[in-house]
Specification:
alpha/beta; Rossmann fold; 2 domains; 39% helix; disordered C terminus
Length: 449
């Protein structure tokens, strides 16, 4: 079976895809691979370089439209046919912004818009990425390392959400790669003593913002044959990037060399064989990845012979919760009968206080009984990850309470006085509580990872 490789790149803002992985994208596209680029935001908080466009700074909607057109031009230059924004038409995630910390690395901004990427729940961001993974069915997924490159909060959030998405997606990618820059490559990027730097007019860096690599660099993708393509794509991001010869600069004017390699570590999935790594990092992101096995979702997809420890498993699939069985419903009925009797006997108890000559009735019995109901129903929902046993229990409590309110049915069964407000509240309270809890989401413990 011959399968066209499918690779998904997940990035935070337009221009990130070109700066960090543009050569890899161009090389893969040139080889005939199906490349999809997913941008989490439209870079609404970006600074603007051209003087005639400075008015766009602070105009988030206006800058977003311009950057949409810029990334479309960059994608055309890189040969990418499918570019997506996270959330599609259903949801828009905005640039969270950043500030420079005292150590020269990016830190979270003091303020951010309500729909900023970093303001969203991690599980929400991951869910949208997972949907793209299931649609594209990539054999490899590429995103930032956990350090976010230079620490940008949106980069870190995209890393975290992509890792979680690979875990939760139904499609099992063969390899998850992280952009990770070797220390020596970072030094070369910001070295102002290289030939041609002086002619650019760019400023030399006082410190290197790139953080040290998180993991072992196992791929050094050679992009020397597509450097011109990467330069054209960089130039397309004209509000954010200035290109001069073999160098480029962002809005801070600090010059950076466009290197002829892009570097990656493997976060999960198929490893690269030790034999191949003896001579240094592999030359390609798909080295030792069995695309055919990935396509068939073979559990051993892409395992490299001789790789230390074999194939690194992608994150374990979360089990779908089992449907409640007989024991769950039996448990619900027994618990409901107990709560029903206790609540029926307790709910009429009150304490009366004199407040400035006015008697005040405190219905603590009803409050305690309804609290008992809420605790029992929540216990059932969280234990069985289902609303069904909880609703059955609420129904049993109400029916039992109704029976106990019929003095002609059972001798002495008059502990519920249906004409009293407290008894009426006790009769309808359990079902109202159950209705509220039925629409309350139970968060699985592993979702916090």
């Amino acid at each position: 079976m011959t399968v066209v490789p499918r690779i998904l790149f997940v990035h935070a803002h337009p221009d990130d895809e070109t700066i960090t992985t543009g050569g890899t994208i161009a090389a893969l596209s040139g080889e005939g691979a199906q490349v999809t680029v997913l941008s989490a935001t439209r870079g609404e908080d970006g600074e603007v370089i051209p003087a005639d466009l400075k008015g766009l700074e602070g105009n988030r909607a206006g800058l977003a439209r311009v950057r949409e057109s810029e990334i479309a031009e960059a994608m055309a230059a890189l040969g990418v046919r499918e570019h997506l924004f996270l959330g599609g038409s259903a949801h828009t995630f905005e640039d969270s912004g950043m500030e420079w910390g005292g150590d020269g690395h990016a830190v979270a901004a003091s303020t951010m818009p309500a729909n900023a990427l970093c303001a969203a729940e991690l599980t929400t961001v991951a869910r949208y990425i997972a949907a793209v993974i299931d649609e594209v069915r990539p054999h490899a997924v590429i995103t930032y390392a956990s350090n976010g490159g230079y620490g940008h909060p949106d980069h870190v959030r995209v890393h975290e959400a992509t890792v979680a998405a690979v875990d939760t997606a139904a499609w099992r990618a063969g390899r998850l790669l992280f952009v990770d820059v070797p220390t020596e490559a970072a030094r070369e990027t910001f070295d102002p003593n290289q030939p041609g730097f002086a002619e650019t007019g760019f400023a030399p860096a006082q410190t290197i913002p790139t953080k040290p690599p998180v993991s072992e660099i196992v791929v050094a993708q050679d992009i020397s044959s597509v450097l011109d393509t990467k330069r054209r794509a960089l130039a397309a991001h004209r509000t954010q990037v200035t290109v001069s010869g073999a160098f480029f600069a962002l809005s801070n004017g600090i010059g950076m060399k466009i290197l002829d390699h892009e570097y990656y570590s493997i976060g999960a999935g198929a490893l690269i064989s030790d034999l191949r790594l003896r001579s240094g990092p592999a030359p390609h992101v798909l080295t030792d990845l069995d695309i055919d096995a990935c396509e068939t979702q073979d559990s051993g997809a892409g395992a490299a012979d001789g790789a230390a420890g074999g194939a690194l498993p992608l994150r374990r699939r979360r089990r779908e919760p089992k449907k409640p069985g007989f024991f769950a419903y039996a448990h619900a009925v027994v618990l409901a009968v107990l709560i029903g009797f206790l609540g029926a006997m307790q709910h009429l108890n009150v304490s009366v206080f004199d407040l400035a000559g006015t008697p005040v009735i405190l219905p603590w019995g009803l409050a305690l009984s309804l609290l008992l109901v809420a605790s029992g129903l929540w216990h059932l929902k969280t234990m069985y990850r289902s609303s069904s046993p909880m609703l059955i229990a609420a129904f049993v409590i109400v029916i039992l309470s109704y029976v106990l309110g019929q003095p002609t049915w059972l001798p002495g069964a008059d502990i519920i006085v249906t004409g009293m407000l407290r008894s009426a509240a006790w009769l309808i309270g359990p079902m109202l509580i159950a209705a509220v809890l039925a629409f309350t989401k139970v968060r699985r413990p592993e979702a916090a990872r």
